[in-house]
Amino acid sequence: MQAQPLIAVSNVEAASRWYQKTLGLKSGHGGHEYEQLLHDGRMVLQLHRWDAHHHPHIGNPEQRPYGNGALLWFWTDDFDDAVERAAAAGATVLEGPKENSNAQHRELWLRDPEGYVVVLAGPYGDVGM
Question: What average pLDDT does the segment 21-41 reach?
Answer without folding.
Answer: 95
